[in-house]
Amino acid sequence: MHLSPLYIEDAVKAALREDLGHGFDATSDLLIPASKRARGILRTRENGYLAGLIVALSTFSMLHGDFEMSVHIQDGERLKPGAAIAEIEGPARAMLTGERVALNFLNHMSGVASLTAAYVKEVKGTGAEICDTRKTLPGLRLFQKYAVYVGGGANHRFGLDDALLIKDNHIAVAGGIGQALDQARMLAGHTKKIEIEVDTLKQLEEVLAHGGADIIMLDNFTTPDLKRAVKMGGGHVPLEASGGVTLESVKAIAQTGVDYISVGALTHSVPQLDIGLDIKL
User: Fold this and answer.
1) Among this protein's residues, is 121 annotated catalytic?
2) pLDDT tens per residue, range 137-185
3) Which of 45, 80, 100, 231 is flagged as catalytic?
4) 93 is catalytic
5) Cα(25)–Cα(30) distance, rounded to whole angstroms?
6) pLDDT in tens, 222-232
């Protein structure tokens, strides 16, 4: 997965507009001469994985065209405290103006990648794949999903138009599991996958008997019920575990034999990775 330059530009410009307010940096513009130059080093302060460097560097280049940059660590690489990620040299005023926006993107995306890598490590050898969800911060979904990918996870659907995911409320309004699956299969077309969410083993049994689902999501199942579900499925339909997954529980969930584990925490409540910008004249 790659981030579109146009998407990066739009997001960074929006973040800069938010930070600059009326269009200027009152502190830097008053204290720093326009001709002053500086060198900055993006440096990590804790262990983790890097994601979003191009977004961070784009922040500075959008503020001023006279920046020279050298990259020492690429997205997806492991970070150790004190490691120099990249160096930038250019106008000191623009560097200070862009510092917080650049770090906001870099710290958040690296936090997502690092947490994803921790989940992936927990399920290694089980065959289960860690996936993200649509529980993302508004406006940052592509950045967050890119960071999940960089951290070794897989991307679930990007939006409502990617695939069909029939949830409990869809089933209720459609009139039942069979009706929902039949309608989806009739109208979706052969290129759209159909996933359906079930809350109980009884619902799973109904879906399996009826047919028509490409993937079945097992929502908030206990570990014993996940094992029963895998046995019932017999490997004929991929199964996805979802709901309340934590680092402490994910290994046991993976060991039940499910194919996918979707984790909302990868994007909706991830801690930032501590990366700073050390500026020198």
Assistant:
1) no
2) 999 999 999 999 999 999 999 999 888 999 999 999 999 999 999 999 9
3) 100
4) no
5) 8
6) 999 999 999 99
